[in-house]
Design goal:
- This protein has about 600 residues and is of the alpha+beta class.
- The strands form five sheets. It has an eight-stranded antiparallel beta sheet.
- Strand 19 and strand 20 form a beta hairpin.
- About 45% of the residues are buried.
């Protein structure tokens, strides 16, 4: 069913460029199939003489039928030898007729080597185009965003170089270091509290300190607060908890903490002494209760801009606690491989977030996802997906990824004009397995949500988690590490409650797992290991020290790397096991 982009009745009049952006969205989404055909023809015609397309004898064809019949669907492992040639210095037109300008690295939280995604200079223009559509959409729903500032915690990672001399860095680092970002024209709808120098500082502590300090100085002007992931924003709140005394000192004296030694930051930040402001922040931060701390410090903030879909959904209760239930806006869907689309209903509930794929960004195909047989048949075009069905995303990009499996599973929720809208379901990868059982991220997330309901009456919540398959025991068993937010230490969940949490998780897992527990005895009782507060910050710090990007870092939902396991196990304060077998009946097998 088609929908229309409609404004709130209280929204302020849109500037001309916002009207043009909305018109562009409407034009692209009304002609989805035609735009897609043109995008594919453009990609294939410009890259007709590349080694990759010649290998499959495409012979200059640009139509979809020939393309699909000759070019195979591939994964990163299929392309890795070719990508490595480019990384090693081969500048011949292997994948793209345009020179590969750099590589965009994956988040670094997947098993194995980090992936290198080829990109070309003009891809920056496509990313900038998608960014330019975000505020025109937001202006339809929330008025007055041009009357204040945005406190966004944005970070870069110091890039590396491949043997052939090409930069390799996360996509956001590439964007923040580009002229598109650094020399962006003034836009009243995109005024940040953080100066570029703070965002571009490669030292995470100094960058965070400077950005937080600027955000505190502008506390009354801040209308929205955000980070890339929900976990990143919670890390910023934790940073404030640990450093508010030093920040207040700087505000009171008009001096910058000597721990911030970056010369560019020190040169750009001319601080003024403000005792009144320091007193307000000190008064709030010194209180034991940090509930609604975001709106207490920044009283005019209207929403949080963070990703809270997929695995990030677990952070919603904690964000609500600190923000007093402010709207959580997911604006866009993107990856290192490609920027895909935008959320045209940004004030919807997190569980209802759907992204409209913009058909001009790349050529999109979808493999119907069969959760039972794993079939990869039934590949359809963007305009031909069906509401309610799950698909695996396949892309063909201007930079030379042809029929590449991204690894995301998406569910079609509707259409905007003729462009489908998708809900992000999960990554395709399986997380946990002891024997024949296979537990994915969505199942684990759901099990934790169900178990954590038992903690509500104790005013306790799960703020972070990861897992591992412990095969050192016989039989092996699932281990889930929990970091808890205990709001009333005098009402800490009893041992039997935590054991029931273990059982509730098992009851929530799939039938194959429960059969292994009950009938086959191939899986031991699930174990919850509670770790002390701050453990997952240490885990993130460790990942960053090994080269992960603070912008793209996501807590791994399954761990096996020995140093990480040692870190987690050294922080365990209590351990609990499932006290009985979960329900399983052979009549319910499929």
């Amino acid at each position: 069913m088609a929908t229309n982009v409609q404004r709130s009745s209280s929204a302020s009049p849109a500037p001309e460029k916002h009207k043009e952006a909305i018109q562009f969205i409407e034009k692209m989404t009304r002609n989805t199939d035609k735009v897609q055909a043109n995008v594919l023809a453009e990609i294939l015609s410009r890259n007709a003489d590349t080694e990759y397309l010649r290998l499959y004898n495409l012979d200059g064809a640009t139509d979809r039928e020939t393309f699909k019949s000759k070019i195979p669907i591939v994964t990163y492992d299929d392309l890795q030898p070719i990508i490595q040639r480019i990384a090693d210095g081969d500048r011949s037109p292997i994948l793209s007729a345009h020179p590969i300008s750099e590589f965009l690295t994956s988040s670094g939280t997947s098993a194995g080597e980090r992936k290198l995604m080829p990109t070309i200079h003009e891809d920056l223009d496509r990313r900038q185009l998608l960014y330019s559509l975000l505020m025109p959409v937001m202006n339809l729903y929330i008025p007055g965003l041009d009357k204040g500032k945005a406190l966004y915690f944005l970070f870069v990672k110091s890039e590396t170089k491949t043997p052939g001399g090409l930069l390799a860095r996360p996509v956001l680092t590439s964007y923040y270091k580009s002229d598109h970002f650094k020399t962006r024209p003034f836009d009243p709808y995109n005024v940040y509290t953080s100066p570029n120098e703070a965002i571009l500082c490669p030292h995470s502590f100094q960058s965070m300190y400077a950005q937080m300090l600027c955000g505190l100085y502008d506390r009354k002007e801040v209308l929205r607060i955000g980070a890339i992931f929900a976990s990143s924003l919670l890390r910023a709140i934790r940073f404030l908890q640990l450093n508010w005394k030093e920040l207040c000192h700087d505000i009171r004296t008009g001096t910058l903490n000597e721990k911030v030694s970056d010369p560019d930051i020190r040169q750009c930040m001319a601080l003024r002494p403000d005792s009144d402001l320091a007193n307000v922040i000190e008064s709030e931060c010194s209180k034991e209760n940090w509930e609604r701390i975001i709106v207490r410090i920044w009283p005019n903030v209207k929403y949080l801009e963070v990703i809270v879909t997929g695995a990030m959904a677990q952070y919603i209760p904690t964000l609500d606690y600190y923000s007093g239930g402010l709207p959580k806006v997911c604006t866009m869907y993107a990856s290192s491989e490609c920027y895909f689309g935008i959320n045209l209903n940004p004030l919807c509930k997190p569980s209802e977030v759907s992204y409209t794929i913009m058909p001009n960004m790349a050529y999109f195909e979808f493999i119907l996802h069969n959760t039972h047989s794993g079939s990869t048949n039934n590949v359809v075009d963007l305009a031909n997906v069906e509401i309610g069905k799950d698909y695996e995303l396949v892309i063909t990009t201007h930079a030379g990824l042809y029929r590449y499996c991204v690894g995301d599973i998406l569910r079609v929720t509707g259409f905007h004009n003729s462009a489908p809208q998708f809900h992000f379901v999960r990554r395709k990868d399986v997380l946990l397995s002891i024997e024949s059982d296979k537990t994915n991220e969505a199942e684990l997330q759901s099990a934790i949500e169900n178990a954590s309901k038992l903690l509500k009456k104790f005013n306790t919540s799960v703020v972070e988690y990861t897992s591992c398959a412990d095969t050192e025991t016989i039989p092996g068993h699932y281990v889930v590490f929990w970091e808890l937010l205990v709001k009333d230490p005098m009402n800490y969940p009893r041992e039997e409650v935590m054991e029931q949490c273990c059982l509730a998780m098992e009851e929530s897992l799939n039938a194959v797992y429960r059969q292994g527990r009950v009938e086959c005895n191939s899986i031991g009782p699930l174990e919850i290991r509670v770790v002390k507060s701050g453990t997952f910050e240490e885990l993130m710090d460790y990942a960053i020290s090994r080269g992960a990007s603070i912008n793209q870092y996501k807590v791994p939902r399954c761990v096996s790397f020995t140093p990480v396991m040692e870190l987690l196990n050294s922080r365990v304060v209590a351990s609990y096991f499932s006290p009985s077998l979960p329900f399983w009946s052979p009549e319910r097998r499929r």
